[in-house]
Amino acid sequence: MRRTPIVLALVGALVMTGCSSGGESAQSAPPASSAAAGGGDASFAVITHGAAGDSFWDVVKNGAEAAGRQYGVQVTYQGDGDPAKQSQLIDQAVSGKVDGIVVSMANPDALKEAVGKAVAAKIPVVTINSGAESSKAFGAITHVGQSEDVAGRGAGEQLKAAGVTKLVCVVHEAGNVGLDQRCGGAEETLGGTVERLQVDIGNLADVTSKVTAKLQSDQQVNGVLALNPAIAIAARDAIGDSGSQARLATFDLSADVVDAIKADEILFAVDQQQYLQGFLPITFLNLYRTNLNTVGGGLPVNTGPGFVTKDNAEQVAKLAEVGTR
């Protein structure tokens, strides 16, 4: 959680090296010294599997738009959980001849063709959040996010230390490879039993009902791992409704989750610092367009995991209020 000075130093260094721009794509960009500062009238499309209005993805959107303002470039954010519609949005961005595309790949195989069209059109692509394993193969210049396996293992270690021996991992998006990796990582380190419970994030009342039913039917379950902030709050309600003593943890932050951590209702949240997943890709695309810089050396740029606990929740809450955490 105390990576902020390093991140700020990185971003500051990137800003200093990316002060020039040209009006063309990176493949034919003029020398940096001949271009105006700020990025000119470049346009970048951010296309994710999370629509605006979601507490997690709103922070990603805030980060991307803040970077756009800083570099003087146009940033458009669109999200859709349907991979077919997400592919259509990528195709539209390619047809619109944007200068770069940021895309999350919860279902990489479904997006492979659309991302390939962007790369073939010489539009640089940065992948974010999920799909890191396919990012390089698909032709993206880098991936920004966290290793879901590593994050899952970290969550499992924390839950084991809290005494959890039988865990329910609540999966809210069928086919999302990142969510499966989170549960799998927790299973590796918990040293106990991990069961997956499939729910629909579009019906939070039903999520509460399903988690309540699971806790009531299996008294040995003493831990619940949510993979989304809204699911975490629904699971918190389920634990209360069922009278269970199960310990609850979650991935990702919202103001409600931070408040629940402060109130001892949630043990911890795995924080992937999603603001950076919006801000850094725009930074990287702008540097690539203006100076042909690439970041990561073929490896993902990690934004997490960190852990928000009761010890640091108050500080994080202040940042969450302004939409940066």
Describe this structure in words.
This protein has 2 domains: 173 residues, Rossmann fold, CATH 3.40.50; 124 residues, Rossmann fold (3-Layer(aba) Sandwich), CATH 3.40.50. The N terminus is likely disordered. The strands form 2 sheets. A 6-stranded parallel β-sheet has the order 2-1-3-4-5-11, with helices on both faces. It has a 6-stranded mixed β-sheet with strand order 7-6-8-9-10-12, sandwiched between helices. It contains 12 helices and 12 strands. The chain has 325 residues and is α/β, with parallel strands linked by helices. 48% of the residues lie in helices and 17% in strands.
Number of domains: 2
Examine the coordinates and then state which fold CATH places here, giving the name of the CATH topology of the largest domain.
Rossmann fold
Cα gyration radius (Å): 20 Å
**How would a textbook summarize the main sheet?**
6 strands, parallel
Task: Give a concise summary.
By secondary structure, this protein is α/β, with parallel strands linked by helices. The chain is 48% helix and 17% strand.
What structural keywords apply?
alpha/beta, 12 helices, 325 residues, Rossmann fold, 2 domains, six-stranded mixed sheet, six-stranded parallel sheet, elongated, disordered N terminus, single chain, 12 strands
Present the secondary structure layout:
Blueprint: H1 4-17, E1 43-48, H2 55-71, E2 74-79, H3 83-95, E3 100-104, H4 108-120, E4 125-128, H5 132-138, E5 142-145, H6 148-161, E6 166-171, H7 177-190, E7 193-198, H8 204-217, E8 223-226, H9 229-242, E9 247-251, H10 255-262, E10 269-271, H11 274-291, E11 301-302, E12 306-308, H12 313-321
Parallel strand pairs: 1-2, 1-3, 3-4, 4-5, 5-11, 6-7, 6-8, 8-9, 9-10
Antiparallel strand pairs: 10-12
Helix pairs in contact: 1-11, 2-11, 3-4, 6-7, 8-9, 10-12
